[in-house]
Here is the input.
Amino acid sequence: AAAPLTGMKLFLAAIAVGFGNFLVVLDTTIANVSVPNIAGSLGVSASQGTWVITSYAVAEAITVPLTGWLSRRFGAQRVFITCYLSFGILSLLCGLSYSLGMLVASRVLLGLCGGPLMPLSQMLLLRIFPPEKAILATVIWSMTTLIAPVAGPILGGLISDSIGWPWIFYINVPIAATFGAVAWFTLRGQPETREKVSVDVVGLGLLVIWVGAFQIMLDEGRN
Here is the structure.
């Protein structure tokens, strides 16, 4: 079993892991108020621009149930840090998008990388904190989950109006790069079990279809 961290190493690891969850949840709402700006800049209608939100939500909903299999197959820390750093790279790609198709495709990839970060961040926080401080780990995770969706529309509106909509994605890049590196540094050396586990391909396919269709219905059903 992985040993809990202590001192400054625990403090840095908790901040890094907590920010991973914060970024993923933040991106579910930060683009909501920016859709008119994005649609106008890319020359599409506002209803088409909502796919920027839907694509991220659908991709995220698909990968969250796969987190258990991914962490057992490749290791929770490895999956977490890989998705963390990939989240920053794909955020840069979102900001550089010059068409709606490119932006939606980038948001799909962003959601696929972001999905595992939410459950893994909670698991890693509980792993690095001593058992007697498990409540503190849960509080940190809950705070990031509750604050991020509230801050998203506020930050999205301010950034879109004052700087430009690409910067709602660019701000993720330095945060993901910095705290992803901190997470790698503080968590490396922690023992972790990996095993070759099979995946139910038929069940996975049905899950992807059902979750994707259900999320699209919730977001776009009125249209």
Summary: The mean pLDDT is 87. Residues 134-162 form the longest helix (29 residues). The radius of gyration is 18 Å. The chain is about 75% helix and 0% strand.
